[in-house]
TrEMBL record:
One of its GO terms (molecular function) is ATP binding. It comes from Limnohabitans curvus. This is DNA ligase. It catalyses: ATP + (deoxyribonucleotide)n-3'-hydroxyl + 5'-phospho-(deoxyribonucleotide)m = (deoxyribonucleotide)n+m + AMP + diphosphate. Residues 46-201 form the ATP-dependent DNA ligase family profile domain.
Length: 285
């Protein structure tokens, strides 16, 4: 499917208007979070981009932070020349390389060659007073100003119909992408979840904390059959599908957070067909 890039008419913005932040973060940055796409939205109101399967990073003008506010440890050369203005993106190691990206980022001093395989995919700037359409122009200008091959601007386009969006999702996932992000062009920067930012994936996903282990039966006897997990809302359920043999022998520990996929909810709010995906990196909590 052809994607119409509607940004060609936008000139590069002046970097001097980016918001300056305090010298050091004292709490998690107030970032926007995406809600699930419902299928009834007016798509012409939204920009569409690929959802990169990496670790979200936030440059506060002085240091690179995780979305939970923890300081990351990139080499000096990786952030050299970055401006004293806030912007954010995804630390990404390529399609299907989430575990590699998480491993690099969680090390206090990962080797240079590991960081040279990373990309910082910039998708927004912290300039609360202007719309997302204007912020796209700003972050494109910022990336051009930094002028480093590992700092890249996330491409934005628009699709006219939900069928076209579905086709683009299929193409993106087939190429190894995680999904898509919809961002309302007229929206101002707003922290938390809202209808201005939506995620589109083949299946929904969420996080839960491991609160126990259930011993398996049959071929899984004497090892973990399922995890008992608890959502941030306090709902508990079992998560057994998706665990491989190594994870059943050495399961995620009680207290760790995991990501799971599911297909809708039951009448009681329990995720249907929930399947374990991975342990959530500690740097994100």
């Amino acid at each position: 499917m052809q994607r119409r890039d509607l940004l060609s008419h936008l000139s590069l913005g002046c970097l001097s208007s980016f918001a300056h932040l305090p010298a050091r973060a004292t709490q998690p940055p107030a970032l926007w979070l995406a809600n699930p796409y419902q299928g009834h939205e007016k798509l012409t109101d939204y920009w569409v981009s690929e959802k990169y399967d990496g670790i979200r990073g936030y440059w506060d003008g002085h240091q690179l932070l995780s979305r939970s506010g923890k300081a990351l440890n990139p080499p000096t050369w990786f952030v050299q020349g970055w401006p004293a203005h806030a912007f954010e993106g995804e630390l990404w190691a390529g399609p299907g390389q989430f575990e590699q990206a998480a491993s690099v980022i969680q090390q206090k001093q990962a080797p240079d060659n590991a960081w040279r395989a990373m990309r910082f995919m910039v998708f927004d700037v912290f300039t609360p007073s202007i719309t997302f359409t204007e912020r796209v122009r700003r972050y494109q200008g910022l990336v051009k100003h930094i002028d480093k091959p590992w700092v890249q601007a996330v491409a934005q386009s628009q699709v006219p119909t939900h069928a076209a969006l579905k086709a683009l999702l299929h193409t993106t996932v087939q190429a190894g992408g995680e999904g898509l992000v919809l961002h309302r062009g007229s929206s101002l920067y707003q922290s938390g979840r809202n209808a201005d930012v939506l995620k589109v994936k083949p299946q929904e996903d969420a996080e839960a904390k491991v609160v126990g282990h259930e011993v398996g039966q049959g071929k899984h006897a004497q090892r973990t059959g399922a995890l008992w997990v608890e959502t941030p809302q306090g709902l508990r359920f079992k998560l057994g599908t998706g665990l491989n043999d190594a994870q059943r022998e050495n399961p995620p520990a009680v207290g760790q957070w995991v990501t799971y996929r599911y297909r809708g909810l039951t009448d009681k709010g329990v995720p249907r067909f929930a399947s374990f995906v991975r342990i959530r990196p500690a740097i994100e909590r």
